[in-house]
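Section 5.1 Outputs to date
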Amino acid sequence: MASFWLRSAFAWIDPVFAHHLEDAAGRSIGDESLAAIGLTLPLEFLLIAVWVGTSNGLTSRLAAAMGAGSHQQVEQLKRAAGRIVVVLCGVFLLLAAATWMFAHSYLDDPVVARQFQIYAAVLLGGSAFTSFWSILPDSVIKAHHDTRSTMWAGILSSVTNVVLNALFVFGFGWGIFGIALSTVLGRIAGLIYALSRAAGHEARRRAAAGARAEGPRLSAPVRTILSIAVPSGLAYVLMALESQVVNLLLKRLPDAVSLLAAWSIFDRSARFLAMPLIASGVALLPLVARSWGAGDRAGVRREIRTAGLAGAIYAVVFVAPAAFLLGPWVADQLSEAEHTRSLAQATMPVLPLAVLAMVPVLQLRPVFDGIGRPKTGLLISLVRSAVFVVPLVGAGAWFAPQAGLSELVGACWGFAAGLALSSAFLTVQLRRALVD
């Protein structure tokens, strides 16, 4: 949880530096830059989805192989992961190129389009190398139960990002290119640390294995990893599509720059506050898998209730005061124009309800992976996006003006309502699964 939250906290670095940007004539382009970063967020979340899905699949398979003493399988899985990473790098380089080529046809405002073109292309293209190659060492570390090292790798990357941001933006004057480049290069520090820690763990594992039998070989190691990675990753891809739909909706409205910038503040705030829920879901998966494998269904239900209660307490005790006391200040610090500031501040009361509604969908969706039903978990994610969240966001934006509210506030309320209905649907499906 500390690792997830710290990394998310440092994700505010780019918007903070973007707030101070100016064009060649000295005119502030902070809101345009923030809007561009907001437009990139779904693409960045797509990258995270692929990273997390692949890491989950690899970590699960590596841990199982290590537990069974199948050291040959461990080596097979590591080589297979390398092949997967090469493919992912190629795919995201193509995505970066497409973003660069079509940014101006996608966006009407030329300043926002230019800032988005630079930021998105550099972030996606550079991260293909500095981010995806960390999947293997990170998964090896987690398979060895050394989650503290993953936290330190994240902290090293984030601190390096801060230093490089200051150097590139204020020292070299590289603008939004420097902001994106510092994020890409900052991840190298964490990658080097993770590689070092993973190498040490693997050296000790191989030494301990000695002359023991290597165990059976995997017939299709890549498929073995992807059988978990694909459903897990697609669930996060659907979450990225939700944000992209909101971006598409808002950019067609009058005053799109302010709307996109304010949504970026709300969306990033919600994701930051939801990090403990995502982290506890990651921790719940292996716990549920062990109990389920042992036939302890009562233990599974007990852990699910404990996690759900903790998530609800977190949303009420921590998120609500933070949103009402600090939310307006955050909106003020990240907004340049008064209209953007007022829009962002108006969304802050929705944050506690949105995070509370996220508790089941973020914490408990991984439970389906733990009980061997990843397709059910993916189906729930699909229903969440296509049936609940996206339609209600659109409905909220459509009806809000009739109630005297902005389209953005209506979209945020629709987002929270969609999450609440999705959580109710997930809870019903999970109860059925635990009874079957």
